[in-house]
Design brief:
Blueprint lengths: L6 E6 L3 E7 L5 E3 L8 E2 L2 E3 L5 E3 H8 L6 E2 L10 E4 L2 E4 H19 L7 E6 L5 H13 L6 E4 H11 L10 E7 L4 E8 L5 E9 L4 H11 L6 H8 L4 H20 L5 E6 L4 E6 H25 L7 E7 L6 H11 L12 H5 L9 H6 L46 H5 L11 E3 L2 E5 L15 E2 L17 E2 L14 E2 L4 E2 L2 E6 L6 E6 L3 E6 L10 E2 L5 E6 L5 E6 L3 E6 L10 E2 L5 E6 L5 E6 L3 E6 L5 E6 L5 E7 L2 E6 L3 E5 L9 E8 L4 E6 L6 E5 L4 E4 L7 E3 L6 E6 L5 E6 L6 E5 L7 E7 L6 E7 L4 E6 L3 E6 L5
Parallel strand pairs: 1-10, 10-11, 12-17
Antiparallel strand pairs: 1-2, 2-3, 2-4, 5-6, 5-7, 8-9, 12-13, 13-14, 15-16, 18-19, 19-44, 20-21, 22-50, 23-50, 24-25, 25-26, 26-27, 28-29, 29-30, 30-31, 32-33, 33-34, 34-35, 36-37, 37-38, 38-39, 40-41, 41-42, 42-43, 44-45, 45-46, 46-47, 48-49, 49-50
Length: 790
């Protein structure tokens, strides 16, 4: 290749990074990085600060995994990451990966500088993340780069493929199923040789890694519990190698099942060989891929494109090799997808086929694509009848819409925040009683009538599928008239579409709610009226909220990937918002001292913040799936999430701890919520399979409590750990009281409490733990009288 005038393109991916070179004569070829066109995006920090990348990083991680970051792309919005005993700026981590590509490009071209460098990025990234990418490129020696959305580069590749010409009056649907996410975009030719993104949306929890996890889950019965303990929570170098071998085998088996009806997987440590059939695999991954097909439909609808205007559906990303993905798209869109060779490489190659007129300024300053409604929440449920408004409930004027509502264009900053497709993460706790409500699995938020609504605006991306307006119904008095009958609803309900409720630790009548309308509201339980002005600031839903132990500070987290602190009395913001991770903040909790806050997200990470100076103290997590709940006991943080995993993080507050497994606490289904008394025992988990599991000690056998006929989505415990209350999912939105005092004979007390029409999101005990506040997706907060065992 001639050294003068060559061009370079780089696709910085979640698990792999790809580079392509184009010579002045038009020849295009991939860069070979570690003898492969796919460079692992992983980074490992040596004790002296040297950053290793690719295969070198993966090899080094076997000896010290705490210094390893396997997926830097997921951390672009974090500012910094902990690698071993040091905090490393994210821009340095990304620059290390891009630097490897730049080094290989110089070697392949005799040390010359490229005439033009193109970097691809997700269509939903905004100015902040693009700025990190551009700064990292400059630091890596690539200079000023052209930044191009990935679906635009994919469309440019398709235009060059034989027999794949795209008509100017047709649109292209780009279905990108990569390692970490599924992104769907609708693009059309813009008349200049490039393409315009009409709409784009994504799923942060469906990707090739999730399909690998399905394979692993299918073979869990093929080894003893001790072997799986070592594979799930490796401690030695040999165990880390075994875990890496297991997941590599799972990935290879997934790929083999796209060509053969059966695959073998060696289970290390146990020295067993397991078998997985294509039928078993496709049955297990069908729910995940169904969601990607639904996402595709909703994105096309958001673009305002009729089906007959779709010219081609292009499959991008290595996970699209799973035949079921193409089959479901074909069945859903009635159009056969375009399946091309090496789908992992076509984005990087296509970036070189864009015209020279595409500039860095155009890429950064261009209008962001429209977001599609969340396909999971798109279906509507029957409207709920409006309860009559009590005379004392005052009429309140509708608030003006915030930027980013359904009737306004998104700003680049709003476009930066990827719209989470999993829209129901939840936790819960009151002072001294740690509890958590989880997500509502695949549950649409019920329709809300516009009649008699006090509209408080709409979520900018219309995620709930309500076709526009979202609000909360008029204020209803929650009258706490005494009711001597335990297990009965007390008075009428507060009407507020909330995700969580937090109780003030000393003012028993005061609660705060985290709203789906992006607000935080403070209420009097007795009157059911708001007791203070509305707190605003979050963009999108507020999904987690908690009072500090002294009641002076509120902490919240939400869809905008931030943690925010508020003065609990005035509602004023305390400091700047803290950016957590790449996905939605699912839950936030103060520690018992009030000095620290733990925040978890949809990507499986938990971070501890100093509540005084707002500095980051410690972060941990696997990054292999969303966390649904978090709680503290002492300096220990416990999290719960997908794959039935409950994890314990020791000494998170002092910044020196590392994660360790809580023995025995792995179930067969997702953990949707957790709760515990003040000592952390017993630990109660609600699971997506409808079972409540209880551990008196970490090593003790679990007690299985059955009764719910749908997923358990919310749970709370009393301070002494004597009883628990759980709430169910959409097919069983009931409340159940459990006696935990009889070890080995825990059981339900009394009949289930009914009244809610939507899945439970959050539960809290109050008034001497004889009253229960419940938050439901039906848009109400209800107060119950209970008679717990003592």
């Amino acid at each position: 290749m001639r050294a003068d005038g060559y061009r370079l393109s780089v696709d910085f991916g979640t698990t792999s990074t790809v580079g392509f070179l184009a010579s002045p004569g038009g020849g295009v070829r991939p860069l070979l990085l570690d003898a492969s066109p796919l460079l692992p995006s992983a980074v490992w920090a040596a004790p002296d600060g040297t950053l290793f990348t690719g295969v070198d990083a993966e090899r080094a991680s076997m000896g010290d995994p705490s210094r390893f970051e396997p997926n830097p792309k997921r951390r672009v919005g974090d500012g910094a990451v902990w690698l071993g005993d040091r905090e490393v700026a994210v821009v340095d981590v990304v620059a290390a990966v891009l630097g490897r590509v730049a080094e290989e490009a110089r070697r392949a071209t005799g040390g010359s500088t490229p005439q033009r460098v193109v970097l691809t990025h997700p269509a939903a990234w905004g100015r902040a993340r693009l700025g990190v990418l551009a700064d990292a490129a400059r630091q890596a020696g690539l200079g000023e780069c052209v930044l191009v959305p990935e679906p635009v580069a994919a469309a440019a590749y398709l235009r060059t493929a034989p027999g794949r010409a795209l008509r100017h009056d047709r649109v292209l649907v780009v279905y990108d199923l990569g390692a970490g996410t599924c992104d769907v975009s609708v693009v059309q030719p813009d008349g200049t040789g490039s393409f315009e993104v009409l709409a784009s949306d994504g799923l942060d929890d469906v990707g090739g890694l999730d399909l690998d996890a399905v394979v692993v889950s299918l073979i869990r019965g093929d080894a003893d519990a001790e072997s799986w303990n070592a594979l799930d929570w490796p401690r030695t170098t040999e165990e880390h190698r075994a875990r890496r071998e297991l997941w590599r085998s799972a990935r290879m088996a997934k790929e083999q099942l796209s060509r053969h009806p059966m695959a073998e997987i060696h289970v290390p440590i146990a020295s067993r060989v397991a078998h997985v059939t294509r039928e078993e695999f496709e049955r297990a991954v069908r729910p995940l891929l169904d969601r990607t097909a639904a996402l595709t439909v909703s994105t096309v609808r958001a673009a305002g494109v009729p089906p007959e205007q779709i010219g081609t559906v292009l499959l991008v990303g290595g996970a699209t090799r799973v035949p079921l993905a193409a089959s479901l798209l074909h069945r859903t869109l009635r159009l056969p997808p375009a399946v091309l060779d090496q789908p992992e490489l076509l984005v990087a190659e296509g970036a070189l086929y864009l015209p020279e007129s595409v500039s860095h300024r155009d890429a950064v300053a261009g209008s962001p694509p429209r977001k599609a409604p969340d396909p999971v929440t798109a279906p509507r449920q029957p409207e709920q009848p409006e309860a009559p408004t009590p005379p004392e409930a005052p009429e309140r004027p509708a608030a003006s819409k915030k930027p980013g509502t359904a009737e306004q264009a998104e700003t680049p900053e709003q476009a930066e925040q990827p719209q989470p497709s999993e829209t129901r993460m939840r936790p819960g706790a009151e002072a001294g009683v740690d509890g958590g409500a989880g997500h509502d699995p695949a549950v649409p938020r019920p329709g809300i009538r516009r009649r008699d609504l006090l509209v408080r605006g709409a979520l900018g991306t219309a995620t709930a599928g309500l076709a526009g307006w979202l609000g909360y119904r008029g204020y209803r008095a929650l009258r706490t008239t005494p009711d001597p009958r335990p297990g009965r609803l007390i008075g009428s309900a507060i009407q507020h579409d909330a995700w969580e409720v937090a109780l003030h630790p000393s003012e028993a009548d005061l609660v705060a709610t985290a709203g789906a309308d992006g607000t935080i509201r403070r209420w009097s339980v007795t009157s059911g009226r708001e007791s203070a002005p509305v707190i605003t600031g979050h963009e999108g839903r507020v999904t987690g909220i908690d009072f500090s132990p002294d009641g002076k500070v509120l902490v919240s987290g939400g869809d905008d990937q931030t943690v925010r602190f508020w003065d609990a009395a005035s509602g004023s913001a305390l400091g700047e918002p803290l950016t957590v991770y790449h996905g939605t903040v699912t839950c936030v909790r103060f520690d018992p001292t009030g000095r620290y806050v733990a925040a978890a997200d949809t990507f499986g990470y938990v971070r501890v913040w100093d509540a005084v100076d707002h500095s980051s103290r410690r972060s941990g997590g696997s990054g292999d799936g969303r966390l649904n709940a978090v709680l503290w006991y002492g300096t220990m943080v416990v999290t719960a999430g997908v794959n039935g995993r409950i994890r314990e993080y020791a000494d998170m507050a002092d910044g020196t701890g590392f994660s360790s497994r809580v023995a025995g606490m792995i179930g067969p289904a997702d953990v949707t919520c957790i709760a515990a008394g003040t000592t952390g025992r017993p630990l109660v988990g609600g699971y997506a399979d409808g079972v409540v599991r209880v551990w008196q000690t970490p090593a003790a056998p679990q007690a299985r409590l059955t009764g719910h006929t749908d997923a358990v989505t919310a749970v709370c415990c009393d301070r002494q750990g004597r009883f628990a209350v759980t709430g169910g999912g959409p097919a069983d939105p009931s409340l159940r009281l459990w006696d935990l005092t009889r070890h080995g004979d825990q059981k339900q007390v009394g009949a289930a409490l009914t009244g809610h029409t939507g899945p439970l999101r959050s539960l809290r005990l109050r008034a001497g733990e004889r009253e229960l506040l419940s938050v439901s997706a039906d848009g109400t907060i209800r107060l119950w009288s209970i008679d717990p065992p003592r």
